[in-house]
Specification:
Chains A, B: Keywords: Aminotransferase, Pyridoxal phosphate, Transferase. Chains A, B: Residues 32-376 form the Aminotransferase class I/classII large domain. Two copies of one chain form a homodimer. Chain A is an alpha/beta fold. Chain A has two domains: 5-30 and 279-389, Aspartate Aminotransferase, domain 1; 55-274, 3-Layer(aba) Sandwich (Aspartate Aminotransferase, domain 2). Chain A is 43% helix and 15% strand. Chain A has twelve helices and 14 strands. Chain A has helices at 3-13, 33-51, 61-72, 88-100, 115-123, 140-152, 178-188, 243-257, 262-274, 277-302, 327-336, 366-390; strands at residues 19-20, 83-87, 106-111, 127-134, 137-138, 157-162, 192-196, 220-225, 236-240, 307-308, 316-320, 339-340, 342-343, 356-360. In chain A, the strands form three sheets. An eight-stranded mixed sheet of chain A has the order 2-9-8-7-6-3-4-5, with helices on both faces. Chain A is globular and about 65 Å long. Chains A and B meet through helix 2, helix 4, helix 5, helix 8 and helix 9 of A and helix 2, helix 4, helix 5, helix 8 and helix 9 of B.
Chain lengths: 411, 411
């Protein structure tokens, strides 16, 4: 399937009759829209000439102050001046890559990794080398071995891109023990760490994990977002970076967009000031936990021949299909059965992953999730029968660059 | 002066006691903020789950439909599918450059040209060749000669970047006679035309001029914006491009930001549907005309030794200083006298322009504009005395790349 075919499939998958386990859209129906609407009215009436005007390239200082309070929940001590506000954290990824990466440079990332990051890295002609992860996240010994091997080959990695919490797509979380180990390895090899953390406050069991940035202010660039904890429609993300990097970020952002939206920034600030955002996050956590339970319960009931992790936060379950099945070639059949997912190949730079799929539990209700898994089971069973009769349906992916699925569906 | 020094100067220039004739900020105090606030409240209450969610990479179809009505005022016949919504038209510039320009490629632009575009072109390592403009805009014979010379040197230009209406910074407008001539020259030389038109509806005298895009749907990429006709704080711009380019634009935009802000897009759509935006533009035109009159009147009264054009729309007057004066080295003294402008060097790729300055009349009231010009006259007179005593104060600009003035101040 070419990118355009996958696009066509996903446009079908957005129809209401399809249960989409593909998208990473948060369930914003849970927000108090009447309270937010009223607050936006007041914002425009009282601070409209600021909200509707151009702003600073770095972002509004008042919002950057609020952001320091949010990230303090993960142990991050930041000054408002360390922060650059971006058009979603996707723009932060784009700017950081633009600044640090020349064509041919190596970026190390988990195997698998976020499709939107891989797309950015590819657009700047980086080479991505994947490193193994397990149930405790990125494996330190594997990272050490990869960086040493690259050095021996004369190809020093410039950057580690990691999603420590409730990984997209793998669902796993880097253990607290491993965090300083990973940082020590990167420091020793002179590798910058880019910590992408959109889901960190959405854990189902524990307090937030300490961010990598909380251990090391100089070697870590932290990417954050209000898209999952509040709402993605404002496109407000941010970067926390060392001073010299921050200056480059602001210049690069001004070149790209002049300044981030003041209306959006003040809307987020108003939300943080007006609504009980901590209680809202608690509601989200409970709601998403219930949906996770629905998904893994339905998988156990209907597709026991597959295997998966049970994430302790975030939006995603990473499913290994029964032997011989190919998630990508199975997708058109799944959409015909009115269920959608993202094939695992989207999350690798090199065409791996056809035996996996990412299922997201963030948007559909628990009942819809269960119905989606039932439909998926029909497809998996039919494919499995074919495999038993004719051998594998898997095909080598000869063009890994064709996985440009529309990013908003994969956030 | 280094970029950081200019930055420091401009941060002083933003103080209220300074009359800034530097920034390109529209005077949004003229907007009906109570009506807009109420409409935003209704938007969030009734369409909040859409406004606050991720959207399409290309932008909301309902807004793209409204955009076709707006650009029809300039004779542009576009289908909503031809349009890609961007985070201000600055992002459109960035994406178009990202798609078309490889390091070393030549872009032809007016002399002078928009500083924010030059910054983007520089960031993609393009080479910019300036072409003469006069009171009727870009000079066709000069364009022809430049393109022929480049071809003879084996350096084909890929793109013409032009601001046909109420040029930033030059204030001039391309005559209707010249428009098809410019297009014909570009077509013959295989040069893509990028038409940047943020001010097109803000003419003081006539109906809007026909856009270059209205003559040629295939060879022109049109960049538009709601920043000057409504409000920049939402950061909503757009590109109208041929189909093949539009597909690339959407992919590049998804890589850069996933999707433009739905909240911002629906806010603009709501504004267009709720408020009498045509009457608002009419108000803006009258207000800006009055400010232009204040500026050129004060120049004639207080700095008659300088020369300037009288723009028939837009935000800017391009002033040639009396012989021997240097706008860049004079700036610190001007800021000390509590008046700010942008030195002409910012608008050239190659360090020209030290004998010019850009004065903007969009933001200060007529009284403040007159006061600003009086202060400027004090500085110009003092500098002129120095020139008469000691010869020129002008210094060669040995590092044209240091003109990275904060872009939001120069929009």
């Amino acid at each position: 399937m070419r990118a355009s075919e996958i696009r066509a499939l996903f446009s079908v998958a957005n129809r209401p009759e399809v249960v989409s386990l593909a998208g990473g859209m948060p369930f914003i129906e849970g927000l108090p829209l009447d309270v937010i609407g009223e607050a936006m009215d007041r914002l425009i009436r009282t601070r409209g000439t600021r909200a509707l005007q151009y702003g600073s390239g770095q972002g509004e200082e008042s919002l950057r102050e609020r952001i320091t309070e949010v990230v303090a929940m993960e142990g991050v001590e930041a000054h408002p001046d360390d922060i650059t506000v971006t058009t979603g954290s996707q723009q932060a990824l784009d700017l950081v890559t633009r600044i640090f990466i020349d064509p041919g440079d190596v970026i190390v990332a988990e195997a698998p990794s976020y499709v939107g990051a891989l797309g950015v890295f590819r657009s700047y002609q980086a080479d991505v080398v994947h490193v193994e992860l397990d149930a405790d996240g990125l494996v330190p010994a594997a990272l050490e071995a990869t960086l040493s091997r690259l050095a021996a080959e004369g190809r020093r990695a410039k950057m580690l891109y990691t999603i420590p919490n409730f990984h997209n797509p793998a669902g796993v979380t880097m253990s607290v023990e491993r965090r300083p180990q990973i940082l020590e390895i990167c420091r020793r090899h002179g590798v910058l760490v880019v910590e992408d953390n959109p889901y960190g406050l959405l854990g189902f069991e524990d307090d937030p994990y300490p961010a990598l940035r909380s251990y090391d202010a100089d070697g870590v660039i932290y990417l954050g977002s209000f898209s999952k904890t509040f709402a993605p429609g404002y496109r407000v993300g941010f970067v926390i970076a060392p001073h010299a990097v921050r200056e480059k970020l602001v210049l690069a952002s001004e070149s790209a967009i002049l300044s981030p939206s003041n209306a959006s920034q003040l809307a987020v600030e108003t939300y943080l000031d007006t609504c009980d955002w901590r209680a809202q996050i608690k509601d989200y956590r409970e709601m998403y936990r219930e949906r996770r339970d629905a998904l893994v319960g339905a998988l156990a009931e209907h597709i026991p021949a597959a295997s998966w992790n049970v994430p302790v936060g975030g939006f995603f379950v990473w499913v290994k299909l029964p032997e011989g099945l190919d998630a990508k070639s199975m997708l058109p059949r799944a959409v015909t059965e009115r269920v959608a997912y993202v094939p695992g190949t989207a999350f690798y730079f090199d065409g791996q992953g056809s035996d996996h799929m990412r299922l997201s539990f963030c948007f559909p209700t628990p009942d819809r999730i269960r119905e989606g898994v039932r439909r998926l089971a029909t497809v998996v069973n039919a494919e499995s029968e074919l495999v038993q009769l004719f051998g594998t349906t898997a095909q080598p992916d000869d063009d890994p660059t064709d996985v440009e699925i529309p990013s908003p569906d994969l956030a």
